[in-house]
C-alpha cells in the first residue's frame, strides 16, 4: 500500500510541477519580444512580408495563444490579413492524454487572390523560385510515423469545445478574364464537436460575381455526426436557404431551399437521402434515395417527385422571358413522379408519370451510365399541340421574306450527336391535334446505334383512314442518306386539307404509296436531291369549286354551233377512281398518267407540280364518252363522241386553288379538227345510207312494175342485198 501511495504522490507532484512550469513560462515569457525574429524568419523562407502589429498573448487555463492585427504582403500588395486569432486547448485534457480544443476563434480574415494577365495566381509566388522541393521518391520512402501510430494504436479522442469564424472575406480577381468573385460575411459556428457524437453546425456567407453580376446570400444549418475513422458521416435537420439575385434572374430576387437528412459511408460506398427536398422559386423536388457504389457503376433505389408547378410562373419568378402560347392557360400544371432503381451502372425509371396540363404520360425507361444507352417507353392519352404554339400575328405573312433574309441556311441534324446516340424508344399517344389535324392511336418506335437512326414505325388513324411510315437516316458520313417509305389508306382528303391548310379543292378517300430517297443535311439540299415516286388513288371523290362539266359543255356547244342556256352549273365535279403516279425529281413532281372517271367523261392528263414555288402546271382533257348534261346545246352527237375537250390547270395551288382550272381555248383548235373529222365521216355515212335508200326505192318500183304478184318475194331479196 505504501508503494501505491508513494506512486500516487509522485504523479501528483509531477502534475503540480508541470502546471507550475507552464504557469511560470506564461508569466515570465513575453511572446511579443519575439516579433522581429518571427517576421524575419517568414521573410527569409518566403516572399512574404509579415507584419505583426497587434499583441501576442498567452492564456493559462485554458492554455492558448492569441494573435491580433496580423498582415502578410506579397510584392507590396496585401495577400492576407487577420484581425484576431485565438487557439486554446484545455490544459487538463493534455494531462489526461485526451487533448480537447477549448476554443478556436478566427475573426476578420481578409484574403486577396489575384490572377494576372498571363494566368498566374499570386499565391503561386509565395515561395521563392528555385526552392528545392522534397523528392517524391524520398517522400514515398519515408514512413508515415503518425499514420502508423494511429493505425497501430488507439484512435485519437478528438474534441473541440467551440469553433467560430467571423467576418471572413476572400477576394478573387482574374485579370485574364475580367472575372471577380467576392466571399464576405463568412461565418462558421460549431460547438461540442466530438467524433462519434452529433454536433450543431451553422454557416452563413455572401458571394458576388462580376461576370455575370450575381449575388448569393446563403445560410446553412444542420446537425453533423462523423465517426472517429472519418469514413462515416451523417447530416440531420439540414436546412439551407439561398437568396439570389442579379443578371441571370433579370434583376429579380430568387430563393432556393434545401432540407432533409443524409448519410454516407465511404468505406462501404453507400449513401442515402431521406425526406430530402429542394426548391427553386415555385419548383419543388422531393426524394428518398439510396446509393450503393461511388464509382461508375452506382446502384440506385428510391423515388423522385416533382410537385405540380406552373412553368410560366417559374420563368417569371426567375426573371426569364415569358413563353407566349396560343392558349394562355397551358404550361401551368406540370408534374413528374417515378421510382428509381436498376442494376449497377443503370438508372431505371419505373411507374413514371408525367403530367402536362390535362395530358398524362405513363411508362418507364432506363439510362446506361457506361455507354449512354437510353431505353424508353412512354404512353400518353391526348394532347392538343396547337395550344402550345406561339400565338398567330399579322407578321406571319411576312415570314417567308424574313426567312429568306435571315441568313445562310443551317444544318438540320447534329451529326456527331446522332453518331453517339444509343436509343430504343417506344412512344404512343391516344390523340394528337397538330396544325388542326386530329390523329388517333399514334405509335412510334425509334432506334439509334452507330450513326444509324431508324423510325421503325410511325402509324396512326387519320380522318377515317390510317397511315404508316418508316424512316432511316444514315448519319455515318457528313452527307447523310435518308430513306422514307409511307402508305396512306382511305384517308378523307376534304377534312384533312381543310384542317391542315384551309384548302377545300378536293374530296375523296385517298390511298397513297410513297417511296423517296435523298441525301444531305439541309432542307433545301434534301428537296433538291429527292428521288422517288408517289402513287395515288382517290375513290368516289369530288373536285370542289370547279365544274369540269361546264367546261366540257362550252366546247360541245361551240362544236354544235349553239349557245348554252343553263346558268346553274353547280360548283363541284364528282369523280370516281382518280389515279396516277407522281415521279419525284428534286422539287418537281411529274405526272403523266392522270385518269379519272366523270359523269359521261373520262379525265386524262399530265403535268408538273413545283413544290418549291407551290405551282401547278397541268394540261387535262375531258374525253366525251356519253351524255354529260341536259342542256340541249351540250347534247353529245356523233360528231363529239370520243373527242377531248381541253382544260388547263395552272397557278399557285396554295394561294388560289379555286382559280386553277379553266377551259383551254388554245388547244380547242385540235379538238375542232377531231370534231370536223367525225362530222366528215358521219357525212359520208349519211350520204352512203341515202344513196342506198334511193337505189332500193328505185329498184322496188322497177320490180313492182315488172313482176306483179311475185314482186314481194323479189323485194325481200333486194332488201337483203342492201342490208335492210
UniProtKB/TrEMBL annotation:
Could you list this entry's UniProt keywords, alphabetically sorted. Membrane, Transmembrane, Transmembrane helix
One term under GO cellular component = plasma membrane
Where are the residues of the annotated region Disordered? 385-409, 686-706
A GO biological process held by the record: regulation of protein targeting to membrane
Q: Where is composition skewed (Low complexity) in this entry?
A: 399-409
**A Pfam family matched in the record:** AsmA
Q: TM segments?
A: 7-29
- List the InterPro entries hit by this protein, alphabetically: AsmA (IPR007844), AsmA-related (IPR052894)
Where is the AsmA domain positioned along the sequence? 2-593
Q: Write down what this protein is called.
A: Cell envelope biogenesis protein AsmA
